[in-house]
Amino acid sequence: MQCGYDFDHMGEQDWDTAVGARADLAAVPRKLRVGAEPVVAESGQSIFRTGARPARMFWVLDGEVRLIRRSRQGGEIVLQRASSGFLAEASLDSPAYHCDAVAAAPSRLLAFPIAAFRETLLEDEAFRAFWMRRLAREVHALRSQCERLALNSAAERIEHYIESQGQEGRLELRRTRKAWAAELGLTHEALYRALAALQRSGKLAAVQKNGSLLLTMKRGTKGA
Hints:
By secondary structure, the protein is of the alpha+beta class. Helices cover about 35% and strands about 30% of the residues. It folds into two domains: about 10-150, Jelly Rolls (Sandwich); about 155-215, Arc Repressor Mutant, subunit A, CATH 1.10.10. A hairpin with a 5-residue loop joins strand 3 (about 55-70) and strand 4 (about 75-80).
């Protein structure tokens, strides 16, 4: 992965370069920066496991890390998909992780000591406000996901996802269909069948382009 700075050491100049690439990192105060440790994960590698005691707060710089729980049937349910920003924010005040974190692609993260993170939130008003804004954004995303998982059919979940995550009924999907199926709480077979049925009915157009899947809900057909 090309980062443009020395990720293994993260000196002041390296932080400046990182902030230039990820503007939100500017909100991280110096006290936390000096204690941050780089983490490099290959695709499929575990970041933490259910039941482990949280010792660090993670920030995903690039790649993709997913929070996963297992359904009673043994399938994966994706609770969070992070390609930038904090991971597993709820772990800040939890005695143990309640899910697994797994890299879905080669990823780079920063790990902040959790005790120092808590202390900084208490002492730094600007950082605390930044943290609260991030939490509000995550709450909105989780509410949308809960609504989606409560829907009965695969087609309804697909339509809800496109409408809530895309713009004007259009979404560019930049991950595998198998990963998307897990996020929707579906088997990949169920997802394939539902996509095919939606396209046959004329409700959905799906076009593969430059490694992405462009999905468009046809106007006037949603919910038909």
